[in-house]
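I am still getting used to backbone structure tokens and would like to learn alongside you. Label the sequence line and the structure token line clearly, so we can match residues to local backbone shapes. Go ahead whenever you are ready, and we will take it from there:
>
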Amino acid sequence: MTPLKFLKISAPVLFFNLALFLALWAVMELGWRIYVATRPAYDVLFLQPDRAVGWKQVPNLKWIWGGIHWYGRDFSVPIQTNSLGFRDMEHTIEKPENVIRIALLGDSLIEAVQVPFKKTAGHLLEKKLNALRPVIGPKGHRLRYEVLNFGVSNYSVGQYLLVWENYVRQYRPDFVFIFVAGFHMSRTIWKYEGGAFQSTRGQQLWIRPTFRLENGRLIAEPARDYEVLVKVQKELIEKEFGGKFMRKRRPLTLVEMLIENIKTRQQKAAEEKKQEKQDITPHEPAGIKEPPLLEMSEETCQLNLKIIEELGSQVRETGGQLVIFDLIKFFRESSMPFALSMKAEAQRQGLGYVPLSDYLLEATKKDIDIQWRHDSHFNKTGNKILAEVMFDWLKENGSKNPRPESLNPKTGS
């Protein structure tokens, strides 16, 4: 067969195959568009500057969080903040006599915008506590429990103290739970927060209040660039978000998605190599921008222990009890010596201490998924385990709280 005859025969076949391929691609593209339309993701400016604590959520804001990817790869969650700017329900400042309050201080792991509010550890804990047999207080009232969530993205241990002093203390909680991993401790001295605000990415702005030790005294260092942060955040809202706090991310085409996947795999491979060098475990929540090359040191550990001591003292002065939930080993096993130091210090100060890492690592050994596949924050199961650990500690230790109206003064029939 001559080349000319072959071309005459194959041309229709090639045209048919090309047409078939384009038709199939169009169908795939349409299906893809429908799929991503049901899993939208948004850019959200849900944090606002706060002079006292650095930042917290925008008060009374309704928004949707689909994660850091361009579509809701793992979840798409509606969020509502309260009038104070935390992901929680409204609570009266004055605590009723028949209420026992538990305040949670943490970062995005406790803020938990990756799950619906009713599936957060705080709400699950409150539900479990109020489902117990009736507990009767000294005046014959049935005791109720309120769990207040003060978790905010990218907070440090230092910011736990600040948020206690400026927002939490007025609610007079009976128990204050703080959640501490190595990166929470490193953030205490890291001024240049680079992951919480789109407006500051690529800039070196001192926007996190920090602490230092001077002759054994705790010295607070206000954020130098607070006013700059306010300005650039305002400009971003006005110029790029049209005066709003949320905008929908543009869905990618199939070709763009394939290119994005290749880039993601390359980036993941590079991060895994970096993790091997720095001994960072894969539990690290995606999207958390940690201080570059800032390793945990004995000095950083001592500073954080001093902050925890101060926080414990202030909580004790209001009649409450501070409890440390230790996450250090879960996120970086090489930091185990710092976990031991924290446990010893908690015992010295008379604080509650829970090796939360042990419970989480036990779940992962049983192949229980406690984190989202692509986001790595705690999923619904992870939040449930957190709630169960807190609940078990309260059942065993709640009656040791110094207040007379403590957890189990009298159980009703």
Summary: The CA atoms of residues 360 and 385 lie 8 Å apart.
